[in-house]
Structure formats: C-alpha cells, structure tokens
Specification:
This protein is of the alpha+beta class. The protein contains 5 helices and 18 strands. The radius of gyration is 19 Å and the shape is globular. The relative contact order is 0.19. InterPro entries: Phenazine_PhzF-like (IPR003719). GO terms for molecular function: isomerase activity.
C-alpha cells in the first residue's frame, strides 16, 4: 500500500461582527505556512469543503517570519464558487485568529490582497479594519412596479454591487421579510456586470442604527451573506452623504445579523470596527 503524505493545515471558523457564537457571519480561516504549496484549485476545493460564504487563506509575507512574530501577511478569499476581490468579514476573522489564537504580538496587521493593502488594528473592545471606499452612482434599471417600494437604485462599478434603497415609509421588518428568488435574479442579470445586490433602508429616529441592510450574491455562490464588510464599502459613502455624518452605526438584518461601526475617512478609506468570536480550532487534513 502506498503511503500518502498528509498535510495538516491549521483551520479555524470565526463568527465575525458578533461577540457571541451562532450570530454574525462565519468564515473559515486557514494558515498556510511558507513551506506549504497550495494551488488555486486546492484552495478552491478547500473552500467548497468548508462550505461557508468565504474561506480566507493567510500566508507569511516574509517566509522566515512566524505567524506570531510578523505583522505583514498575504491574504486571499474564496467562496465555494470562486475567488473574490474583497471580503471584509473574512478579514476581520483572519485578524481575530492572528490576534487571539496565534497570539500575534503586534497591534497592527498589514494584509496584501487583490484589493491592495489592508490593515487591521487591535483596539480595546474591537478590531478595526481599513478598507477602500466604493461610492455608488445612480443607475438605470428596469424593475416591475419600480415606484412601489424603491426610492433609489445605485451601482458600484468597482465592486459590481447594486444598491437598492427602500422608501423611508417602510420599516426594518420589510427588509427582514424579503425572500428574493435568487435563481430568477441570476437569470435576469447574467452578463457578469452584477455580483451582488444590497437592499437598504434608513432607520427611524428612535432606533440605535443609522441604517439597516441585507446582501444577496448568488452570482458568486452566496444566496445571502449574513454580514458583509465589502457591501458596507458601498453603503457607508452613500449613507454618509445622505445623512451628513462620517460616523455610522449599521446593522445587517439577515437571520444571523451583525453590527458594524463605520467611519468614513477623508482619504477615501473606510474604517470598519467590529467584534469576532472564534468557534472552531482544528486541522484540515490534505492528502
């Protein structure tokens, strides 16, 4: 019998944008040592096996530095269907693994990604990420009964995200009760121009949040993403202009739900602060 070499990859599951298990957005985080070579096909198969909205792969930027000593890393994200350019919640999850599980000694982490250089900072009660802003622009889209409940439609070309704002006369429960038919969404827009749809609403004055949202991305294998950092790179500049404020408190009202504290910076960056809860620590056996 042939002896197969088994590679043990440290693997974690982290609930991002929540302080307790079974809420927020779960992401898998895999530590890839510099001595381990993973092809893109293997990464994609691992993401399929983990079957979460995203699996993050962290590698040392400098091969001879450890995960606990270095503050500079490479970071990539895969859905079960494909690699993506940006994933906020999996970046938060990756930061939590490095800070809490690996006991990284730095207060600031630097990630080299397909979206450029991202940073994460450890604060007293949160981890804050610096992400690029992706302001949306007005967009013409033919929809059935467009005046019934939609106030505005915008599009972010840099992220391929469509933003649909619901009229202010509706409440949060309207968004929570939405049941989109994702198969029809995909067949109606199959040109590759749209990668996800954000539905958002301004909350009432007595509520603690400035706005709420949900995010649907069946085009990349995610019928609904529970809490989405990248969607808020589109939402934050829009609501900052609409509400006339730089600091925003947001809630993504998926069934799991999660809170995001947002600060729109003058240098076209977005600070996203949130908490994360590590729920699984194990090994992925690769033969």
């Amino acid at each position: 019998m042939e002896n197969k070499k088994i590679c043990y990859l440290p693997m974690y599951i982290v609930d991002a944008f929540t302080s307790h298990p079974f809420a927020g957005n779960p992401a898998a985080v895999c530590l890839v040592d510099s001595s381990t070579i993973l092809t893109d096909d293997i990464r994609q198969n691992i993401a399929k096996e983990m079957n979460l909205s995203e699996t993050a792969f962290i590698e040392q930027y400098t091969p001879d530095e450890s995960f606990s000593e270095s503050n500079h890393f490479k970071l990539r994200w895969f859905t079960p269907a494909k690699e993506v350019m940006l994933c906020g919640h999996a970046t938060l999850a990756s930061s939590a693994v490095l800070f809490e599980c690996v006991k990284n000694k730095s207060d600031k982490l630097i990630f080299e990604t397909l979206s450029g250089q991202l940073t994460a900072r450890k604060q007293a009660n949160f981890i804050s990420l610096m992400l690029p802003l992706n302001p949306p622009r007005p967009f013409q889209l033919v929809l059935p009964d467009p005046e019934q409940n939609i106030q505005a439609i915008l599009y972010s070309s840099s992220t391929k995200k469509l933003l649909i704002r619901i009229k202010d006369c509706y409440t949060r429960s309207f968004i929570e009760q939405l049941k989109p038919q994702t198969d029809k969404m995909m067949s109606a827009h199959n040109t590759g121009k749209i990668a996800g749809v954000i539905v958002t609403l301004c909350t009432k004055a007595q509520e603690q949040y400035d706005f709420v949202s949900r995010y649907f991305a069946p085009w990349v294998g995610i019928p609904e993403d529970p809490v989405t950092g990248s969607a808020h790179t589109v939402l934050a500049p829009y609501w900052s202009d609409e509400l006339g404020k730089k600091k925003l408190f947001a809630y993504q009202c998926s069934p799991r739900g999660g809170e995001l504290r947002l600060t729109v910076k003058d240098d076209q960056r977005l600070e996203v602060a949130g908490t994360a809860c590590v729920v699984l620590n194990g090994q992925f056996l690769l033969q």
